[in-house]
Design goal:
Helix content: 40-55%
Largest sheet: 5 strands, antiparallel
Shape: globular
Number of helices: 11
Structural class: alpha+beta
Oligomer: single chain
Number of strands: 9
Distance between the termini: 42 Å
Strand content: 5-15%
């Protein structure tokens, strides 16, 4: 699907596809029979649906060249009040993170007894059943799992796994010496025949994985820095963890700012022809994909997180409103990107994602990329000029 500029960009790192990014924010990973986890788009081995050899031709609209005041009179967009979502990284969090790094590097011992707590790392076997029948992809053996429902948790494991909501929570407090069942419900938009169904997972925890001590020898296995001491490694890890949590908090606050701005803005009109064209283009893509992947359009809509065609249309409208707002701010604040600045931004993007500039230009139009850059700039401007208020529980 060709992606409109919308709120989904805020929660994703820009790569040469947005499909897998969108999917991962909506649908829990699918667990294969081998215990591997995937959140791939249909027919894709790596979650991508766009190659650098394929030119994206999304529907375009000349927002910069259009008098956008015919659609909206922007109110005050500076000083938007948002909850400060930044947190203090404690020594306990750093210790836990390093422990997970050690486990990820196979530096652990196996504990055969104990009670599962939040953030316990276990090796387990499980079998998932719906109506008493095991379903495909619902079983695994020796699966390493971090028991946590905290979506904002930054883990030191190389593959931090999130299961269906309620899965990890139901494991907390269980005695690993006994087999147990947990009951969960698949999301309505899971994207296959399991959508909305109740399931029972029978869990056998083989071991709790306990990290080894952080010794000088183990630091060498975790860090690429030569001759780094244990103390310096801990200090560097805390700095990295602070940066990771700050980035996550910043992304969440950016989403809040945009939601407040869009919901609080009254539109006099909208470019209906453009909206209908974008929506029609998306539906055409889905219809073409349905023939390739053997899925109905409704199944694909659910796969990409939309409850219906109407929900997709609403997303197109929301994305259009957002574009009108951020291009009007570009004009108001003179945040215009000239040709020289555009080329410099392309160089930065290429370095960030590990592609050559010419490959990016082949994959995406200049209009599409400028949308991305303007969106970044306006988002930074709004955040810089926002008013952060203390969290209610701080």
């Amino acid at each position: 699907m060709k992606k409109i500029i919308s709120l989904i960009i805020l929660s994703c790192t820009f790569v040469l596809t947005l499909a897998s990014c969108q999917l991962s924010t909506i649908i829990p990973p699918v667990v294969t029979t081998t215990g591997e986890v995937t959140s791939e788009a249909p027919g894709s081995e790596d979650g991508t649906t766009t190659s650098a050899d394929t030119v994206e031709t999304p529907v375009t609209y000349d927002f910069m060249g259009t008098d956008l005041t015919q659609f909206v009179d922007l109110g005050e967009y500076k000083g938007i009040k948002i909850e400060d979502k930044r947190i203090t990284v404690t020594d306990e969090m750093v210790t836990r993170y390093i422990s997970e790094m050690l486990i990820s590097a196979d530096l652990f011992t196996k504990q055969r007894t104990g009670i599962i707590e939040e953030y316990t790392v276990v090796s387990m076997d499980y079998v998932g059943k719906v109506d008493g029948v095991a379903f495909e992809g619902g079983s695994a053996k020796d699966f390493v799992f971090l028991v946590s429902e905290n979506a904002n948790y930054v883990s030191g494991l190389s593959d931090r796994t999130m299961f269906i909501a309620g899965f990890a929570e139901a494991m907390i407090g269980k005695d690993i010496s006994k087999e147990f069942d947990i009951n969960v419900k698949f999301p309505e938009n899971y994207g296959n025949d399991l959508s909305g169904k109740n399931a029972v997972f029978t869990i056998t925890v083989n071991h709790i994985l306990k990290a080894d001590e952080l010794t000088a020898d183990n630091v060498k296995k975790l860090s690429s820095t030569e001759n780094i001491t244990v103390d310096d490694f801990v200090k560097q890890t805390k700095e990295d963890l602070v940066a990771a949590y700050n980035e996550a908090a910043r992304n969440n606050m950016n989403v809040s700012i945009w939601n407040i701005l869009i919901d609080g803005t009254t539109f006099k009109a909208l470019p209906d022809e453009y909206i209908n064209e974008v929506y029609g283009d998306e539906i055409q893509d889905l219809e073409a994909m349905s023939k390739v992947y053997g899925m109905t359009v409704d199944q694909l809509l659910a796969y990409y997180g939309y409850a219906s065609k109407e929900a997709l249309k609403e997303e197109v409208i929301k994305g259009t409103k957002q574009s009108i707002i951020f291009y009007q701010i570009v004009k108001n604040e003179n945040l215009v990107i000239d040709d020289e600045a555009y080329e410099a931004r392309l160089e930065e993007l290429a370095k960030e994602i590990g592609y050559k500039v010419e490959d990016i230009k082949k994959a995406y139009t200049k209009e599409y990329l400028l949308d991305r850059f303007y969106f970044e700039d306006v988002t930074d401007f709004l955040y810089t000029n926002a008013t952060l208020v203390p969290a209610a529980n701080s």
